[in-house]
């Protein structure tokens, strides 16, 4: 296995156009599971394709281990890529689809058979080796695509939104499958997704991108609990952080801004789970319930308070109705502060 290092990686597709990537620098340590997360068009797939050699960077470098591979063809990088659309050959059996990269290498048949059988058994498709892709479910096809990557025994695995075409239950199963593979293979894996749940549950670290720039890289706990800027605060979480502009006078919720950030902070953020609903009273702000989303174990309550649209996450299914008036409280320890440029204030 190997580390992956991006040094000021830049990619522009059209002369004079906005860059898809702008000076992206990132270190992925050997054996790490890193998730590239961001909205559509943020540059995450472009970064992955530059690592794979499917796109030529406009500037910067790509290193795999101790080797600068920026200008090497894909075949010489020793990486395996799993795509969103499976990319299976419909006329080949499962066995031949998994074996295809080994066949292209001219690997001896005995070793090729061993690798194919091992990968198929590991992924639960050992009994499907003689079938064609058209005879498989979506989850089975994705397992075959994973098997084709595994048999290569590459130094780096690259995943480009591989679960997007699966239904919710299959996505949960395949997330667990990929994580089991990572633990077993102890491989370096870089995983692209726009799904925050996938990022939070799978990544040892998350790199958040927007408009071609790296906004923050850190563990799920750090990216969620200490967002580096307003974009990350709003994007991470489902729903994202409530962000309240500070105005004087009055300040929403009569928030007491700590002296250390007073005069600098222009936005206050609070996660939905840290908005507490109470009975209306003098020690709480008043809010009006606009919509209720019961999710079973918890409920999202959409509110309007001081001209702001907010979302609170409460346990269970509360006895609330639309247009009801409630009180809102939040503890200062759970507040986040951002400056005029959107950067986090300590």
Describe what this molecule looks like in 3D.
Helix content is 25%, strand content 30%. α5 links the parallel β7 and β8 (188-193). α2 (94-105) packs across α3 (109-122) and α2 (94-105) packs parallel to α4 (138-150). The protein is built from eight helices and 19 strands. The strands form four sheets. Strands 6-7-8-3-9-10 form a six-stranded mixed β-sheet, with helices on both faces. The mean pLDDT is 91. With 346 residues, the chain is an alpha+beta fold. The chain has helices at residues 44-52, 94-105, 109-122, 138-150, 168-185, 196-202, 220-225, 230-235; strands at 4-11, 21-28, 33-37, 59-64, 67-68, 79-82, 156-160, 188-193, 205-210, 213-218, 242-245, 267-270, 276-278, 285-294, 298-305, 308-315, 325-329, 336-338, 344-345. The protein folds into two domains: 4-228, P-loop containing nucleotide triphosphate hydrolases (Rossmann fold), CATH 3.40.50.300; 239-345, Nucleic acid-binding proteins (OB fold (Dihydrolipoamide Acetyltransferase, E2P)), CATH 2.40.50.140. The protein is globular. The longest helix is centred in the middle third of the chain and has 18 residues, at 168-185. It starts with a strand and ends with a strand.
